Amino acid sequence: MKNIFLFSGQGTQYYHMGSDLRGSHPGFEKNLTQLSQIVSDVTGCSILDIVYDPGKQKSDNFSDCRLSNIALLTIEYALAETLIQADIIPDAVCGMSLGEYTAAVVAGAMTFETAVYLVASAGSCFDTHCEPGAMLAVLDDISIYHDNDILYHATDIAFDCHGKHFVIAGDIKAINEAEKYLRQKNICFQSLSVAFGYHSRNIDPAHNAYAEVLNNHSFRQLHMPLYSTVTTCCIEYLDGNHFWRTAREPIRLMEALESIDNSECYRYIDLGPTGTVANLLCYRKGQRPVSNIFPIVTPFNNSQMNYSKLVNAVNQNSMRSFATHV
C-alpha cells in the first residue's frame, strides 16, 4: 500500500500544537528545532517561542496571519520529516489551502526556506493591503447559502463538504451579518482562527503585491505526484500563480479526494495539527475503509498513540508484503 501525506491549512493552527509529540518523540523535537532556526534566519522570529508560549492556552486565538501560517508550515513539515526518517515515505502529497506549500516542499518543488519566505511575504501583503476578514464553518446544508441574500451576496464559499456543511469567508461586516442571520435561524456555526477571509474577495487587494513576490521565484520539478485542492487533480508542475490560487479560490478537497481514490490504493496520513483532513476522509467512510486513515497530531494529547498506530500499520503491511514475496 502506498502512502499519501495530507496537509491542512489556515484555521487549523493553535498554540501548543504537537506539544505532546514533541515531549515524547526526540526526532520530532530535533526537526522542530532545526526548522525553527531556518525560520529565525528568514524572518527574525523564534517560531517555537511563539507556538509554545507558556502564557498561552490552546484555546487562545492564534490568527496572526504571518506567524500562524509560518507556525503551521513548520509543524507540518517537521512531522513529515519525522515520518520520512522513520522510513514512512510519501508516494504522493495533497494539501488544502496553506497546506499546499508544505506539500510542495515535500514533493521537492522548493526548499522549506523558500516556503517560509513566501508564506511570510503573503502575510505581509495581506496585512498591508486587505481589510480584516473572517471565516465561518456552517454545519448545515449548503442550500441555505444559495437561498439567502445575506450569505450569497456578501460572502464567498471557501469550502463545500458535499453540500452537508460548508465554510464561508468575507470581510468583518459581512461575516458579522452572516453570524446574526445564522443565530436567528438556530443554525450551528464555528468561527475559524484566521485574520482574513481567505478564499474570498476579502483578499483580492493583495493580489498584485503577492503576485510580484511569486513571479520572482521559479519552482523545481516535482519528484512525486501532488494532488491539488485547487485543480482537483494531480499536477505536473508549479508556478507562482498556483499559490495565489490556493489562497483565493475555493478549497475543493472532496473533488481532489475523488481523483486520488481513482488512481491508487493509498494509506492516508494527515499531518495537520487537528486531524481535520482525516475527519473529512472518515466522513466518506462508505467509500473508503477507515483503517486506511491516520491522523497523528490532535489537540487531545493522543499524538504519540496515533503515531504508534501508524508505525505499527506500516510495519504490518511491510511484513505481509515480505511474506508474499518469499
List keywords for this structure.
6-stranded mixed beta sheet, alpha/beta, 326 residues, 2 domains, Alpha-Beta Plaits, 48% helix, 4-stranded antiparallel beta sheet, 14 helices, Malonyl-Coenzyme A Acyl Carrier Protein, domain 2, 10 strands
Task: Give an overview of the whole structure.
- The protein is an alpha/beta fold and 326 residues long.
- It has two domains: 2-129 and 200-325, Malonyl-Coenzyme A Acyl Carrier Protein, domain 2 (3-Layer(aba) Sandwich), CATH 3.40.366; 133-191, 2-Layer Sandwich (Alpha-Beta Plaits).
- The protein has 14 helices and ten strands.
- The chain has helices at 19-24, 26-43, 47-51, 65-85, 99-106, 112-129, 143-146, 149-154, 172-184, 207-215, 240-248, 253-261, 276-283, 303-325, and strands at 2-7, 92-95, 133-138, 156-161, 165-171, 189-191, 226-228, 234-235, 266-270, 293-295.
- The strands form two sheets. It has a six-stranded mixed beta sheet with strand order 8-7-2-1-9-10, sandwiched between helices. A four-stranded antiparallel beta sheet has the order 4-5-3-6.
- Helix 13 (276-283) links the parallel strand 9 (266-270) and strand 10.
- Helix 6 (112-129) runs antiparallel to helix 10 and helix 10 runs antiparallel to helix 11.
- The model has no long low-confidence stretch (mean pLDDT 93).
What does this entry show, briefly?
This protein is an alpha/beta fold and about 325 residues long. Helices cover about 50% and strands about 15% of the residues.
